[in-house]
Structures
1.
Amino acid sequence: MTVTENIIPDTPAVEEKSERAGFWSTLFSSRMTVVCLCVIGIFAAIAAFAPWFAPYDPLKQNFLAMSKGPSAAHWFGTDRYGRDILSRTIYGARPSLALGVMAPVLAGIVGTVVGMLAGYFGGWIDRIVSRLCDVLMAFPSLLIGIMISAALGPGFTNLIVAIAFAFLPRFVRVARASTMSITAEPYIDAAVASGQSWMRILWKQILPNISGPLVVVATLWVATAIRIEASLSFLGLGTQPPAASWGNLIRDGLTEMLVSPWSVITAGFAVTLCVLAFNIVGDAVRDVLDPESRD
Amino acid sequence: MSKLRRREFLMAGVAAAAIAGLPKMARAQATRSLRIGMSATNVNSLDPRRSVQNADNFVQRQIYDSLLDPPYGTFDLDYADVVTELAESWQVSPDSKTWTVKLKQGVQFQKDAGELTSEDVKFTYDTIMDKTTGSTQRVYITDLESVEAVDKYQVKFHLNKPNPNFHASGLISIIGSIVPKSVAGTMTMEQYARQPVGTGPYEVAGTVSGGGVTLKAFEKYHGKKPEIDTVEFRYMADPTARTLALLKGDLDIIEGARLPGWVGQLKQQMPNVVIDQTRPGSINTLYFNMSMKPFDDIRVRKALRYGIDRNTIITAFGGIAGPAWGINPPEFPGGFKETELPEELRYNYDPEKAKALLAEAGHGDGLKFEIIMTQREDYASIMLMVQDMWREIGVDMTIRTIDHTTYHAEKDKNVNAIVLQSSTFAPVSTQIPVTYYRSGAEVKSDGSGDQNYSHYGAIGGPGVDDLLDQALAEGDLAKRQEIVRQAELKILADMPAFTICTLSFVYARNPRLDLGFDVKAGYARYRLGGAKFTS
Amino acid sequence: MLLNRLVDSVITVILVVTLVFVAMRILPGDPAVAALGDSATAEQLASFRERMGLNVPLWHQYLDFLVNIVTLNFGTSMITGENISAMLLANLPYTVELTVAAMIIGMIIGVPIGVLSAVKRGSFPDYIARIIALAGFCIPDFFLGALILIVFGLKLDLFPVTGGGTDFPSRMQHLVLPAMTLGLVMAAFTSRLTRSALLEVLKRDYIRTARAKGVTERWVIYKHALRNALIPVVTGFGIYILTMLSGSIAIELIFARPGVGSVLINGINSRDYPMVQAGLLVFALFVVVVNIAMDLLYVLIDPRLRRAAR
């Protein structure tokens, strides 16, 4: 057991599964899961239909209402350009959720390909890939995200690449291990004997069998992706103004905290709630799809 | 269990109380030092001949004396009013081509570097003019032909063309700051930048961890010795951090944030704060790139100008912004006031007229384009407001935000359709038109051009080049200004660019500190030698 | 095992160094313009590039870069001309003291909560403790920092909110709020880890034996269970230390503290290549060092493993 494996996947409540017996916890986790699914649903709807939900245009300035506190017209007040904070927070859900989904998906696709190749062929490819994974796994994903986006510069595409890269080794590992265990099955030997190409075997025989665990891993990393996006935007490496994202709303909000802390508080709670919901649902998905991966 | 926890919490509480109790001890120190928070991340160069950062210039202003300077707190360049620091007296020849400065005797350099003489003055200017030294100030004194040390205390500046304003570009701070030949002559500018020696009221004593520099009063200063012994310049790029530190009394002066509403927000938290601001400060001008469609069409350019409500922008900045009607701001000698302009050249906000002009130019159903813009707060906030106003007249401008240095690099390569430029000039009427509106200064795609972002003169604007050349050759100040005003009227009619507003440099000061003068104008720096705490 | 780790570390460093180097050269924005400012002329830019070694072929720059790293010569900042090694050295203590203080706070708060939570499993306090741990896990550290800054910066005048302090007392004062921020996040991790480790241990045979022998419950927990449970807690710290370190970047930004993180972010903002390179390198080295240290600690703490490890 190495240190890094200890924390992967770093979602909360890892130990809950071993206590199925507790009536409390079962009830708690299942009801919690439903609530969290609803929360995610609401966030997704808000992001998808942001123009409909937002009371104002998030970029519309109003110099008659600069830096105002909460009021009936602006529930969470306005920023220094008179822009509505609630509307900006609603629009801020878009980059967060888009990235939260796209980064794990990208990492999943690339990681699966690399992991399957390494697992199927073994040998030096496998050794190099595994070693690189070990090396990368030693880094917290936020740190890798910072390093990559420091190098690539800000921007949505760069952000996806940076976060996906941070997640990559996790997917490679799962894909590799699953592929190796399936490759040992007799029906793969049979397929090889019948002259099927390796590409066909990977695609038709192996991929369908390993997709379950990969979906689990992808779900588990959505929450982390959202948090990293917020951190990077906060550091000025992520989503760029005037576009709103939760991270840069908090960053901008700090310069206005003397007057109104609402920008910080609204966006901060949005990130926290979203990360919480995805974490809990991620755990639940794992329980359903892949109960063994618990330990 | 509970016992254990209680004990731990108790211990934590005691520790916290002990730490919280420390401030009283720390504050009980004898003499208070003056602490200033600058908007920059770290000291770049304390060599006045090679420096690009305003925060550094502020520090330099304390370390060095200048030959001449406008009266403190002003930008008054009248020959009769200019004050002398290192100069005993000075003279301009009738043709404005020779400037003679007589130095004070017995002025000592810090760090025992000896007495200041004409050799040091000559050395300073020679190294600025030398292309191999990498001085950043050379561009400002291109009309300086040579410097002659007549005797130990007398220097003559020979110009290659008449310039009645040479003192404004060449003799006041920061360029007028003299470095000692005996020290600076033995090392490169980079080396010297870290161990500066001047003749000013303060000398370098050390660095501040996390970025900054500490100064201490110079014992052998030739003028009045400062009352405050130590000055600490802390470099803090984050405006919130600076503001909080001022509110908590940790800092006495901070460089303000040039953001809408910042001054008002600070005053809410600290009603007695003193706001020191320079008028006009920086001049923020929007240039249309006339080499690009549709900005070659004067109707489009005028429409965009009519679409900007400059009063709203000025109001939003809350007292730190001001209007400019002509090319030179009204605070400059010869600068146009609103009423001096013919009605059609005032371009007051008129969205209906803007829409009509756009329709006439064939853009009735809207205009869409993308520009790049720096993320620096003053630029970004002006452009955000402009973007929003233009949306009202059907103009959809997408802003791609990039960092400040990239913006400057790209802007100089003729890639931007619209360029916002913030710059600070001494109140000399020729400088702005010559820098931005003369065909010879046209921006070029390979980056080798200068700062005429609109291509004015090369595209349109007949006769303006001639007027500007005429102005530069004119030795008489009043006549010069009159020629420049003629050129300004032509430029305003052609609308290659227009000034959105002027934006003061802002410093917020704790009222317990008295500077000894009021800050009204000037570059974004002032002297601290006369400062004292009042209570 | 240790040898493997060392080889890993060398690979890590080389990988990161190369990655950093390559990425830094494809960045947009001209470093010479960044350093000299807007008014610099073409020949000034050229002479600057020459002095900074930016005008030689890339492979040559790369070799220079490697040699400089091996000799621990990070060069001078392009913007300020300062010696980067000296600058990092001056900033390092601030980051280290923040991380260490955060860990201590995390332990002091987290371990007792974790123990309580495990011992009273399924009870109301456990429920609350787990909710808090979960919340602590989900709140982004910079948001927590921002909240603390708002509360203490504007409402409570107890501790300084900006800067890093100079002499020892002022440094301790300046440390309180940033360390509290990261410490609370750390406490969430620690309590969770403690709880699960303790639960795991309590199920083991020797605990049952001890209980059967009539040893008091408190004694069982403190003497036997907790001690064994601390092994995964302590070794699990490695990744948390690194998480704290990456979190310290944002925290330094919020509280305007000096530190390696602020050096890095300043470098990024001003496009100071050598500075960003050096900053990233230091963080990579942190990772390597912490991992090696944790491996060693693990072997030291658990004698059985020492034997098992060949």
2.
Amino acid sequence: MTEKLDINAVKQAVRNQIVLQNFQTLLSNMVPKCFEKCVIKPGTKLDWSEESCLVRCAERYNDALSTVSATYIGRMKRESGQDS
Amino acid sequence: MDSKLASAISGLDAKLDAKSSAELAKFIEMEEQRATFQAQVHEYTDLCWDKCITKIRPQLDNSDRVCLVNCVERFIDTTFLLMRTLGEDARK
């Protein structure tokens, strides 16, 4: 009995793994895009204007992600409506 | 990642009773679907950001948003069109 797994613990571990994976994908996609847009001529450190641009860029990337997600969901709904 | 996840889970089967095993299989299927959806959203955003977001503004403006919507819709249209084209070629 002691070797039986707690199914809820397994589920939580899977969910955590997916959240982590999702975050890593977001970061590895977003960093090069915002770096390219905001850090035009890399200096000895990120200056104030570069930092504020990067923060805004990250916010806009998240906005874009939400817009894309909503559009994709809408399209999937339309496509499945046509099939039935 | 999905297949790795599936094989890791199937290794757990021995340690679960039949009911839990079935419940877990259903759970994994749902989570895989969600993960596939999220991966697709990341891919579209990656692609459409380059086409649509030319300037970082305090907010996405309306033209940014319209471009993103069109970009996703036309990418999906492109996928369907090329699927049909390849299908027709294969039948010749």
